[in-house]
Protein: AbrB family transcriptional regulator
Amino acid sequence: MKESKIHQIRKIILTLLIAIIGGVVFHFLHIPVPWLLGPMISIFLAINLLQWRLKWPSSIRNSGMIIVGYTMGLSMTSSALLEMGRQLPYMLLLTVLLLLFCSMIAYIVSKISDSDYQTALLASIPGGLSQVLILAEETKGVNLGVVTLTQVIRLMMIIIATPLIVMLPIFQETGKREQTAVDSALSIATSASWEQLFPNLLLFAIVSVGMAFICIKIKMPTAYLIGPAIGTAVLQAFGIEGLHLPPSLINLAQLMIGTYVGLLLQPNDMPHKFKTLWIALGSGLMLVIGGIGLGWLLTVIQPVSKATGLLSLAPGGMDQMGIIAHAIHADLYIVSGYQLFRTFFIFFAVPPFVKWLFKRMDRRKGKVMPETDGRMENHM
Structure:
């Protein structure tokens, strides 16, 4: 047991070193969000090219998500929550449009790959990875390997592509309200330091961790992210001002999350490797294009920048989009609001609808089969 534990610790340390090297390289190459993308890409390459066996406990990733959740909660002031309330009709409209677009992608994929529509649909839903995999496990006849691979590739493509896209000149347009946010965020980032955190941050740390575990108990999606965000927002509503975190701590949270995402895709988990891989890449690319289109639509109907629109509708994880929004000083509460709404909508509305749809499809198949058999018997 002792040797096994020591071996596991060695693998964690090796994983950490590879992640740090990736972050440093991406930092010096001036790639956007280097401490998220660098560890993710370096870990992914180490597993797939070098065939190294690495380990990164989910508890470390969860700690990073708590930090990101806290930073999201800081942006949820009373005025921000009021603005999110005004955005609800647009959130519903654009979320439904995104899901319809995903359904269309699933239909195309099912025809190209000759796979069943149920598997293709669950592989295309832009929800939390754990949510979709649980739903896939509970659905009979669904190829869990294909769903897992496609979802992970979709997530990785969006996490890699989105920060690169938002750095393009066309997305650098900034509105007056966002420019004010940028100026204040830059001044806060330069003034935030470790000395200010203790003991002032202790109450927020206790509440953030406590709310995360409460959200886990009530089975709330992405509990380690939503719990701290809600807890921080509530404390601020009672007049307790939260402290902004130093950049080094934000970078550490990105490394914790990026390393875990890089470990998600294991080469042995690929059924029909090349065919499934190309289909997953194609559907992921279509989702990126769809996110760009819906993000542009948001800028047409609402006074937000193109970068904020893209991050709000990008079908990636709320934690990753929140990190990118924080890094480029986009409207964090708009981004987190749209991502949070989609997370809840997919968590509560999509599973019952998908189950109802699949049951109806099974019934129709059941009705078609006897009729077909009857016709064949008559011909015979």
